[in-house]
Amino acid sequence: MPFPAAESSGGSDAGDAAALVVRAFLDGRNLRTQRAYTQDLAAFASFLGAADAQDTAARLLAAGSGGANRLALAYRAALSEQGQQGATINRRLAALRSLVKLARMLGVISWALEVPSVRVEPYRDTRGPGKEAFRRVLAACDGDEDRRKSARDRAVLRLLYDLGLRRGEVVALDFADFEPERAALQVLGKGRSGKVPLALARPTLDALNSWLGERGTAAGPLFLNFDTSGKGGGRLTASGIYRIVRARGEEAGVSVSPHGLRHTAITEACKAAQAAGIGLEEVLDFSRHKDVKVLMIYRDRERNVQGRLSSLVAETAGE
Fold first, then answer.
1. pLDDT tens digits, residue range 241-256?
2. DSSP secondary structure letters along 117-176
3. Residue 115 CA: distances (Å) to CA of 42, 81, 91, 97, 271
């Protein structure tokens, strides 16, 4: 179907073009990405006073190169004045740039949105809650009277920590991904096009087998949400995993999040690799990052090189 040009057509044609662009922008993406882009478009719509995503896209695309870039600059300034974090501002600008890029690719416009992102000083707290805190969180499952919930939560916690999985990776798991005879789990990693087998340690394998003893061996999602209404086909959601981890943490008296468990797992992997004489680049097989520079952040935070050097410098000045 041909796309009418928004920058040269009347209101009806421009609206049709915007609707097609928005639909193409969201189609084919996973639910998490769709939700994020929808929120970003809604935020820009609020800034413009637009009715919805289609109206937002129509106004932006009809503004032309100069007008659209001026709008984006004003939006960036407004977000800064609101006290939004740099990462949030950049994500919202990136959504607009992606929308405009798609419109240009489809022949709706011939220009690009060139407003740059704001500068963000990178800092990542990679420490996580620590291994002792994880042990306490795991132990919180033992006192649960609901055996199904206890077995499920323990298996989820072990995957988040033992394999360093992300919430989305756990959510996407199906029963068919578990290969007990190989002690492996097929995982679709972030930004990957295909699943890869990850070896399971004995405690992880035991936790999964215990959960399957409660779940059964029917096809479908590996982890269920126990929702009697059957929402989402019964699949445990990313929000559900977050609530599980937070609740178990509260029971254990510690503050913990799913990604915090991943942080702790990777930190422990870096320490174990160093002790075993394994190169940092080989820890990528565990963390599944694409760049070893990310692992250097984990290693350096754990070693506290800055703090050690600060103490050494302070000693040169005496008491």
1. 999 999 999 999 999 9
2. PPP---------S-HHHHHHHHHTTTT-S-HHHHHHHHHHHHHHHHS---HHHHHT-BGG
3. 19, 17, 13, 8, 42
